[in-house]
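The freezer alarm interrupted the setup, so I double-checked each line after restarting. Inputs confirmed:
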Amino acid sequence: MKAELTMKEDQGRFILRGQTFAFAGNPFEIGAQEAVDHRQDGAVVVESGRIIAVGAATDILEQNMGVPIVNYGDALIMAGFIDVHTHYPQLDIIASNSQGLVDWLQKHTFPCEAQFDDQTIAENSAEFFLEQCFLNGVTTASVYCTVHPQSVMSFFEAATRRNVCMAAGKVCMDSNTPSNLADTAQTAYDQSKALIDCWHGVGRNHYAITPRFALTSSPAQLEALGSLWREHPTVLMQTHLSETKDEIARVLQQHPTYDSYYQIYQSFGLTGAGAIFGHCIHLSDDERLAIAGSGAAIAHCPTSNAFMGSGLFDLEATRRAAPDILVSLASDVGAGVSFSMFATMRAAYEAARFHGVVLHPAEAFWMATCGGSKAMRLDDRLGNLTAGMDADLMVLDLKSNPLIARRLARAENFFDVLFAQIIMADERAVKATYVAGNIVHQRAQVSA
Ligand code: GUN
Ligand code: ZN
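Predicted 3D structure, all chains:
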């Protein structure tokens, strides 16, 4: 069944023509003007799931006579979005009210996740989740499953059928956990290891060791998972860190010998390049510096943070304390309320604005693409529209509703165009999504 449904990989060469948008560098480091490479009439050559060339349409067409062309007119071709922190089993509890994180986990999340011992439920959710990703131009994500190994199997099977590059892991939790969701230090290690052996590096799949957070893991479990990561250093590690003040107090009560929340993960070897810490809202400057020094990444989850009342992540203060720190963007579905990276970028803009800072559209788009691939240690393969990268792309209708179209009549430059998307676009802007060169989503024409 797996082979039968796997997407065709051996494609002939074809060309996508339209506006193109790539990053020549990191706008946080070299400034937006230098970092953004935009072409009004560009073209992308794709072959066998890879980007072969990107350039001016006239040059590309001349060099590729007779190669089929898909002409997207003035739509924008760019790398697909990367969502570095999301929970596929929490689809069905988006928009569930609570008094805050712990209440939400107990009231909504744990009962929902408990159903994922049922493979049929897991399969159905995994399928729906991936379709939502494609609808929103998300071509890669780092995904939390549930404590049940079969939830991970179902997810990777669905991802494999679509030949999409996804990271995922079994959530590990042995403390402060309902008995129907609890594993142990040993079963967390054994089951995670078996899943790594089965899936990591198979096709486009990547494994992420996933202790839920320090409140639901005993020191013994964190120790076991730290050992597992040392034994399998190419996998990712994802967890939650400093999301709410109440959580921090509870965590420090549970792990009383530590001075800070981050230090707990650090002491068990659960940090470094390939570690992705979700939220990181209430960190001290010492924690920020230590994270940056380790090479780990922050997953900024602004729609989640606003919806849950967790706090407003301060990107500016974080970067001031640790200029090299890597901050990427994430939906955090289902505490996060949208699959759309436009909604996520908009919420990131608003969070920064509340701290008195204007987030540049190039910075927001960078965090939602290149920043994500860097956090996942995949930046040599995807996250940008450049030759040699996997052809995980989306095509954006920049005038996807009459209001945006009207606003763009006054746009003075490409940054105005990007900013209007952040503030006003939703999934209707995603005209097409390509995964490894295969079209996986196509929207009927809606241009104004
Ligand atoms: N902290 C621990 N588990 C979770 C979760 O599932 N979602 C969020 N937002 N925070 C968490
Ligand atoms: Zn989360």
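Quick read of the result. Residues 1-10 have pLDDT under 50 and may be disordered.
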